[in-house]
Amino acid sequence: MSRDDPGDWRPSASRARLAARAALLARARAFFAARAVLEVDTPLIVNSAVSDVHIHSATVWLNAPEAAAGDASRTPYFVHTSPEYAMKRLLAAGSGDIYQICHVARGFESGRVHNSEFTLIEWYRLGFSLDALMSEVEALVRELLAEPAARRRVERLSYREVFLRELNLDPYAADLEALAQAAAGAGFRSPGKHGRDEYLEVLMGTHIGPRLGRDALTFVYGYPASQAALARLDPQDPRAAQRFELYVDGLELANGFHELTSCQEQRLRFERDNAERRRLGLPVHALDERLLASLAHGLPDCAGVALGFDRTLMLATGATHIDEVLAFPTSRA
User: How many other C-beta atoms lie within 10 A of the C-beta of residue 230?
Assistant: First the structure.
């Protein structure tokens, strides 16, 4: 039977990998318990979609018959793509250091290392710098991966350094034509005009990222300010955001920020996202006013990160496809 055959009711993951999953979850919880980080639980179904043009929220109708009939008075809900917004509301309310292990869902996520529904470990640390958070991510990943990571060195490289090393290209100084040529050389053949960030995303995703972390735990920090999302800008270099990603064996495992606390700046970024969504013909959603209100109330100085648990489990067990570590991938759920 094929993977998508409805007659194949069996789980994709073997019993051994299901057991490995349980063991890694237990290790993660022990890791945070030892550091007195509180485990929290936030809703799967939320009122607001994300505005990021690269992330696509799944819509949920809780009043299905009316919604299906096109009743405009019915309000759609969304499956969260990350617990970030809700967790920041908890932080603003005085929760202290928190973490969560949860399922999230994103549209257009399918492939060897992508499934529409997947598991994140997300946590926030008050008073942490980006460097301190990278050190804690390293400690957790070594704990979860055990032998595969025990002897690996760690390296921290700036976004600019990895572009220069892998492409001999300065992502901040190169003109659009040079970026387009590099993207074409990496196999990008999409017609039409593209912006600077689109080319940079293609180059990082298809050419640079897969080469990173082959003999190290590789942290890349200082992403362009235009890719800051919910991160602060670097006070020493406003072209860069205080954001990092972790790569291991060519897989992006984690994405971390020194969190933006300005309500006004975050609102402007969301509005810019929506303007770009209009340009690209993507759905435009109302801003999450509850998140913005929590920032206005006062988000404490903190750093936060999301770690892809399923990809980490792939590395820990030697799996080559994400389906091998999921009981039931979306195509067979």
Answer: 23
Instruction: Tell me which CATH code domain 15-152+215-332 carries.
Output: 3.30.930.10
Q: What angle do CA 318, 165, 308 make, to 5 degrees?
A: 35
Show the tokens assigned to 156.
């921290």
3 state SS of 105: strand
Q: Which residues pair with 157 in a beta bridge?
A: 220
In the chain, % helix, strand, coil (3-state, to 5) comes to 40, 20, 35
**pLDDT tens digits along 86-103:** 999 999 999 999 999 999
Report residue 37: phi and psi, to 5°.
Answer: -95, 125
Secondary structure (DSSP) of 159-207: HHHHHHHHHS--TTT--HHHHHHHHHHTT----S---HHHHHHHIIIII
pLDDT in tens, 39-83: 999 999 999 999 999 999 999 988 765 555 556 557 889 999 999
3-state secondary structure (DSSP) of residue 319: coil
Burial of 1 (0-12, 13-18, 19+ CB in 10 A): exposed
pTM beyond cutoff 0.90:
yes
By the 10 Å C-beta count (0-12 exposed, 13-18 middle, 19+ buried), 55 is classed as middle
Closest Cα to residue 231, out of 270, 261, 190, 272?
261
Residue spans of the domains in the chain: they are 15-152+215-332
For residue 196, give Cα distances in angstroms to 116, 177, 209, 259, 277: 27, 10, 18, 24, 16
